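Objective 1.3, modelling of assemblies. Example input:
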Amino acid sequence: MHRSRLVRPLALVALAALLGAAGPADSPVNVTEPAGLYEGPQHGYTPPTLNGATVVDLAALDRLIAADEPVLLDVVLADRKPQGLPPGTPWLPSHRSIPGAVWLPGAGVVPLTAEQEAEFLKRIAALTGGDKAKPIVTFCRPECWGSWNAGKRLVEAGYSRVHWWPLGVEGWQDTHDTTVVKADKAWTAIASEKATPPAQP
Amino acid sequence: MKALILALGLSLSVTGMAHAAGASDTDQERVARWNDLKKEIFAGKTIEPSETMVRIDAPKRAEDAALVPITLAMSDKDKVKGVSLIIDDNPTPYAAHFIFGPAADPGEIKLRVRVNNYTDVHAVTETKDGRFFESKQFVKASGGCSAPMGMSDEEAMKGMGDMRLKFGEATPGKPAEATLMIRHPNFSGMQMNQVSRDYTPARFIQKLDVSYGDTLIFHMDGDISIASNPVINFGFKPEGKGPIKVVASDNQDGRWEKTFEVPSASN
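Predicted structure (tokens):
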């Protein structure tokens, strides 16, 4: 499914270019950046830019990883156990990501509580060793505002080398290996303890 | 840590080649996952690899992760008692379990499933003499479990439980084939209603019994990994008597049954 999501926007871009159409908000073309964080549903067409951050493609991401040891910040939402699953059904979610990534499930959700927001910044400070110039890459899945929002939060917090990888895990695993990544414990403790669990896909 | 990241950087640059050769860094993790699942599902039974006892045909890259066609082929079919399908990286990996009855021709069974992420898919057959055999196939697809159906829940549930049975061309003396189609959303519980932004609770075909007259063809235990509007293709011994009866039930007390007359073999 995600694959077709990868392909379809390109076809739509081509079509829109042919027609000379300015895309409405429900098309992937010309999605404009919100002034602050995006408060709509997490899944949806995203802008091609993130002011204050660098949008990377796969080649740029490969180079960055090889050269700069960036913090790879995965904000994919955790699978939520379905309601109505018969007791005894094995429920064994597993998350695969870019090797070396730190997974903070739902860290791109809006709004976060004040505690979640503070914990997010605290985790990033720890992961960057307090270096605001340390490169960071945010990602989730294709057409996911979560990674855009996480990048925006970091830009607003004063990080100077924020990168956004819009195609996320799906865009990576097409040609690269993934590895099983467990959710960051410090983050999930605070994220699940407080209200508004990060649950929107 | 620094050395590890450097090592990762190096290995990433050759990943493309390594993958083509089938020797990826993550193979071991996938094997470990499968070993865990085997313990959970088959309680430590010895499972031997065998492509003759069971083979999986699946697209290497699925066009639609919410509708991935899977064929389980069992060439030594007279020995087969049942077959299980496990989609390793799905959050509920145990997709389906079939038990074949005396009226079955268990050479092949087809169904359509949801795949949540690039994953190994395993099939395990159990023979009549109590042995287990496995084979696997890697499938590239992702997002299938949470993919919305693109319509309201009410619309998706319209005509729930309606069934059709399409018979393959009958040839005297040869096993007969049929395709069962059941209208049912098979909600995974991981799909979000696009309007209300609530998750639709899991509602799926949990048990399915198909018999020819009084004789069982197969019983299936299903799961949320089976695609919406289940379609199951199966073989049966044509010499049976009476109509084919299908009884389906879901995990929310839905129960439906229907009988179908078997067309007689022409000449």
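Helices of chain A lie at 2-19, 58-68, 114-127, 145-156, 168-173, 185-193.
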